[in-house]
Specification:
- The complex is a heterodimer.
- In chain A, 47% of the residues are buried.
- The two termini of chain A are 48 Å apart.
- Chain A is an alpha+beta fold.
- In chain A, a hairpin with a 3-residue loop joins strand 17 and strand 18.
- Helix content of chain B is 79%, strand content 0%.
- By secondary structure, chain B is mainly alpha-helical.
- The relative contact order of chain B is 0.12.
- Chain B has a domain of 152 residues: Orthogonal Bundle (MetI-like fold).
- The radius of gyration of chain B is 24 Å and the shape is globular.
- Chain B has 14 helices and no strands.
- The chains are: A alpha+beta, B mainly alpha.
- At the A-B interface, strand 6, helix 4 and helix 6 of A face helix 9 and helix 10 of B.
Chain lengths: 373, 278
Amino acid sequence: MTTNTARNTAATAAGTGPAARSGGTSVLLQDLTRAFGATRALDGLSIEIAPGELVALLGPSGCGKTTALRIVAGFETADTGSVLVDGKDISSVPASRRDMGMVFQSYSLFPNMPALDNVAFGLRMRKIGASQRRKRAAELLDMVGLAPQARQYPHQLSGGQQQRVALARALAIEPRVLLLDEPLSALDAKVRLQLREQIRTLQQRLGTTTLFVTHDQEEALSMADRVGVMRQGKLEQIAAPDELYQNPATAFVAEFVGVMNRIPGELQGSGNVTALGSTVPVRGQAPDGATAVDVLVRPEGLAMEVRANGNGIVTTRTFLGSVTRVGVLLDGDIAVQVDKPSTEAAALAPGSSVSLSLPAEPVHVAPRQTADS
Amino acid sequence: MAAIARPREAGRQEAGPRRSYPVWRWVILIVAGVYFLVPLFAALRFAGIGAFGSVISETGFTSSLGLSVRLAIVTTVVTIVLMLPTAVYVHLRLPKLRRLLEGITILPIVIPPVVLIVGVLQIAPNFLKSTPYLLALEYVILAMPFAYRAIDAGLRALDLKTIVEASSSLGAGWISTLWRVVMPNLRTAVLSAVVLTVALVLGEFTMASLALFQTFPVWIVVNDQTSGQVSVAASLLALFVTWLFLLLITMIGTRQARRTGGGQVTLFVVARQQTRGD
């Protein structure tokens, strides 16, 4: 991909890709439900994906994100609800006729075929002539930077190379929708980062509508146009990465995406919460019942100043480049993290007494987390 | 002596761990070799080299060997055609039934062949009783434990669900997936099943004898009454030909496995090579 050839090939491929061919494909997941025994994997999931968009489904294990992807792929059937591609219900169409390329979490290359034949397999199934499909497969391999490995068998390739071949194979059929089922999770950190960028670049060049499932928030936030956070089969929020980070709709999203501090607070009757000596409005819905809650604030959201007899003591200091993450132990043994510009953090030596306060804007609150919970 | 010995020991330690072959391993190898080779050598001496020349011209040799080979081919084809899709289907769609299937396939080992053939001869229609291919159907049952286990081992070594789904997402139907993706990756396992089935058919005596068909093993026993030396020579010949056949299949399977990273042809274990770790 770093070569000119690769770029040219990518451009060629883009010219024949789905975006160029049909202007992209829209996907609509409509009120999907799916239960496995007593477990509801999906509970009324609805998502609309615009043509050429990359949507990531993010959530903890068992939240239903992979089930949703497999229903779109045709490997699972929904109990109720439907999947519409370009407005047509494809619920009854078998997986082999859905025209969707998929990259799996585990290595899925056919062990009996070299890389080139793996990439050409989908074209063979579409009855494309031998010379044409070999040419096309070679182009795709070149596009993912693996032209020299064309004759190698999967067991001769590294994990990262295998996933790149799998990506080329999925793209070779010019799929209407590209489905990525945690394709990077089995790879080491460095390869994961490289492949992440490669997938995003290719997806943008080809304009292929893509649904990407991951439990890695960094992956989701860095690659997707929009990220859908799922919990217990439901979509908590779907938004652009910055929107999701800055304006989380629920306490779960706030805590799941990015680093979040929990600071004990008391709910006031007027929709306010008091913590760290200040009272601020509550964002969204406060938990019913108890007045004892945790206030959720990001490390960059807390104000901190050095003050003798303050409400906290600096315990650690981690340099992260332009910012330094400062660990503070608040009264009551509450550990929090505060981000400060590195130029200001020099004065915050471990052992310094500091005073922390809440931001003036509304904050999310969650039920109080005790040591047992 | 001690002064000389020490540097040698140190040198060994620096060279890293070495594979040691304790004496008892050689003892076991020699005892096993004697156990297997002495009877063969005795049989060879008894038969004499001249008997090998007259085996082929012996009455019934060609027809009985031909029958056994035909039965081996039919049995192998029927076994693979029945066993392979069944095992694949159970692995993919009914994984909970795997243990049950394992239990069912082990039954022919528990039930003696004599019971099976007597039972079948009681209930089989006449048109089946009159054809030796009745034996092939019986042999399919006898081969089931071995064939199923060989194929099952191959399926366990594959990430079957993922490659089938990958194939399906690329547009392949069920038959294309089975033929182009599953079968080639089970070549080693299928070869193992073939090896076991052929060996079983070429050596089976009880059923053929009770059903009154003169397969090669039956011919050897019958011929033993009139010409002991020729019979022993035929036995040895059959043994070597079978070995050669098995060796050939094993070599083909191993060559294929080396190329694609598949496992070696062994009877019940097909170990797949790992992906490079980087």
